[in-house]
């Protein structure tokens, strides 16, 4: 993949999946009791574990591999596992992927600027 737009397009299912899981967890979370500190902690653990399981299921079912999309070569199962964990961590995982994309985009842009500077020097 050569451009930021192509990578963003490839990662769209990952980002949408993370937001969908977050939505499901919010609905489920609203039905769980959380009056005492112990109940709130239990609710948080249940929702966190559920999010990870849903993320892993989604990543393996949809054959999503973020690391591969970013140009690194690792085992497909490990890639799906990492993707599932990122998706399952819900909004935090999506934000991490978006931050990584922003960082990558800035580096590509800086590289293009340096190429133009080099061309000007000639």
Keywords:
122 residues, mainly alpha, 5 helices
Distance between the termini: 29 Å
Whole-number mean pLDDT: 77
Number of domains: 1
The shape is elongated
State the helix count. Answer: 5
Structural class: mainly alpha
Low-confidence stretches: none
**How would a crystallographer describe the biggest sheet?**
none
The helix/strand order is HHHHH
Instruction: Quote the beta fraction.
Output: under 5%
Radius of gyration: 19 Å
- Please provide the count of β strands: 0
Helix content: over 70%
Oligomer: single chain
Descriptive overview:
By secondary structure, this protein is an all-alpha fold. Helices cover 83% and strands 0% of the residues. The longest helix has 31 residues.
How are the SSEs placed, and which strands pair?
Blueprint: H1 4-31, H2 37-61, H3 66-69, H4 76-88, H5 91-121
Helix pairs in contact: 1-2, 1-4, 1-5, 2-4, 4-5
Short description:
This protein has 5 helices and no strands.
């Amino acid at each position: 993949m050569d451009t930021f737009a192509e990578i963003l397009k490839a990662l769209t299912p990952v980002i949408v999946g993370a937001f969908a899981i977050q939505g499901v967890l919010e609905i489920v979370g609203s039905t769980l009791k959380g009056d005492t500190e112990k109940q709130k902690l239990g609710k948080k653990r249940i929702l966190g574990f559920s999010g990870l399981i849903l993320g892993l299921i989604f990543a393996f079912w949809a054959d999503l591999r973020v690391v591969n999309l970013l140009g690194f070569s690792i085992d497909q199962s490990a890639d799906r596992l990492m993707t599932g964990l990122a998706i399952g961590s819900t909004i935090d995982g999506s934000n991490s992927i978006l931050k990584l994309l922003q960082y990558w985009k800035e580096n590509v842009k800086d590289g293009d600027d340096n190429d133009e500077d080099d061309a000007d020097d000639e």
